[in-house]
Amino acid sequence: MPYILKFIFSIVLFLSVSSCLKIKDLYEQTNPSPEEYPLTKVAYNYPYKNESGNITAELTITSHNPIDIRNITTEIPVLKYNKTWLLMFTQDDCEQAAYCRSWAAINGKPVSDSNPYINGNLSSELFFDAAHLYAGDLPPNVIAPGKTLGSTDGAGNEIRFAITTTLLPESSCMSVAATVKPGWHANYHRFFMKSGLIWDNVIEMTNFGTGIAFHDVDATDVNDPSDIYAHLHTAQECILKQLNGRGCKMLAEPNGNKNYISAAMQFADIQTMVAQSSTERLFPFKVSTDLNKQILYREFNEDPEYFKEKIKNQLVKPVTEREAIHIGVHRTDNKWIHFLEWINEEYGKDGDDSVWFPGQEEYYEYNYHRIYCRIKIEQVTPRIIKIKLNSPGDRYFYYPSLTLNLNGIKRENIADIAAGETVSGLSCSNYKDGVSLNIDCRKGLKELASHYVNLYETDKPDKLRKADALYFVNLLKASDYKSALLKRID
Fold first, then answer.
1. Which position has the higher pLDDT, 186 or 449?
2. CA angle 296, 336, 194 (to 5 degrees)
3. Mind listing the pLDDT tens digit for each residue in 241-270?
4. Which of 20-34, 217-231, 407-421 has the lowest mean pLDDT?
5. The Cα angle at residue 132 between residues 128 and 135, in degrees rounded to 5
6. What angle in degrees, to the nearest 10, is found between the helix axes of 225-242 and 199-207?
7. 465 near 430, Cβ under 8 Å?
8. Less CB within 10 Å around the terminal CB: N or C of the chain?
């Protein structure tokens, strides 16, 4: 009997080792591999260091008929583009999925499928980075590109949804280079989930309006606000270096740790915060302050269906009574992608176009400008009026734009709208008893549009790149520069 047991044990051991060897062979290619070439800084790093955040704009309106400025009234609406409800979406823990799922779905890119099966076989979830997307080196099970998700500016121009992602600026995981191996199918190591977003991904995301926030820091004692405070400074220095002068002004409280809130209250750079408890509920149409240092409320729930019901319940209320919906998530999966698509179909550009879906940074800045903007109207001639807007930005402001409603003049009566040099983007549409103007004063908007046109020209058959090129060019004001870019796309 002992001999039989030894024989059986030997057979089991042999089979186990053989099995292990086979598994190992699947994931460790011993044949010579093609040259591995990490691609870094693939995206255009917007020169945030050049933005002041101030709005100093001048518009000259020429009418077909005489205008009396006594009949003109102005209004900066509560929500940009005159939307009737506010949705925000914050993704914690610097998740790689914020790029290859949330951002990718919004911007009509291939999406990392959260289904862990490839050709019916169980596998690891696979992810990708900006360098992979640029090189066309993607996991075998990506979800094909869909339509872009967003709303409109009221004048027919698309405004894509924008999430907020948290960062881990002190962690080396954000500086890892993506390994890019087009055509290499022996294994998919390069698509295994990283410890977090890498800087290349964040650079590309912020170009499209994604907001950023502090979250965890590498404090020795996270129960000591002074230790957290010191590390917030260090984290800010990292962000400024990596994002070409862009600083962070938002905190997403991690793990319900109120010591982070205490530290943020002392850190002047942080101006807006979000948490799950001891917060302020946001009713946008009742806001009368600049919200500086206010801790806004958000909610976590793993089931997007829960938030669908919350949204529906808010939208049956009068506009002035609607509470902002702020969703907190960690790693997003396919059901969250379907949720974002549902928002677009029901309330975005392919629905009733009622939602404004910005990052919290952008909402905070817009509300700040709404509170502090000063508007002056001058009568130049009987048919010409001049409008001057002036609003100071604050530290690390990067969304110098607003919507201005003019009551008393219709779009069809306007012969021309001339915008001063500080205005880079402008659109106009009829709104109620007047017109609505969307004014953008970003200094680098022309260069941003030019970058995506250049990118499209490198591979014209790529419909995704064409969509991005048109998206950014359409944000520009009418000009010879814009016309030249549109000709290059066509």
1. 449
2. 90
3. 999 999 999 999 999 999 999 999 999 999
4. 20-34
5. 160
6. 70
7. no
8. N
Q: Minimum mean pLDDT among 13-22, 211-220, 248-257: which range?
A: 13-22
Entry pTM: 0.91
Strand-pair category, 121-122 with 117-118: antiparallel
Rg, C-alpha atoms of the chain: 25
Percentage above 70 pLDDT, the chain: 91
Residue type, 182: P
DSSP for 388-453, written as a single string: EEEE---TT----EEEEEEET--GGGEEEEEE-TT--EEEEEEETTEEEEEEE--TTHHHHHHHHH
- Across 226-239, b (16+ Cβ under 10 Å) vs e yields ebbbbbbeebbebb
Contact 130, 42 (CB under 8 A): yes
pLDDT tens profile 74-122: 999 999 999 999 999 999 999 999 999 999 999 999 999 999 887 777 7
DSSP bridge pairs for 435: 406, 430
Distances in whole angstroms, Cα of residue 42 to Cα of each of 162, 184, 322, 436: 21, 20, 41, 37
Q: Give the Cβ contact number of residue 389 at 10 Å.
A: 23
Q: Evaluate whether 382 touches 61 at the Cβ level (below 8 Å).
A: no
d(C-alpha 169, C-alpha 427), whole Å: 37
Q: Check residue 490 and give its pLDDT.
A: 83
Q: Residue 194: which of 63, 287, 330, 95 has the closest Cα?
A: 95
C-beta separation of 431 from 418 below 8 A: no
Compute the residue count for the chain.
Answer: 490
Q: Which tokens is 57 given?
A: 């704009």
Q: Where are the beta strands (DSSP E) in 228-365?
A: 250-252, 272-275, 295-297, 299-300, 325-329, 355-356
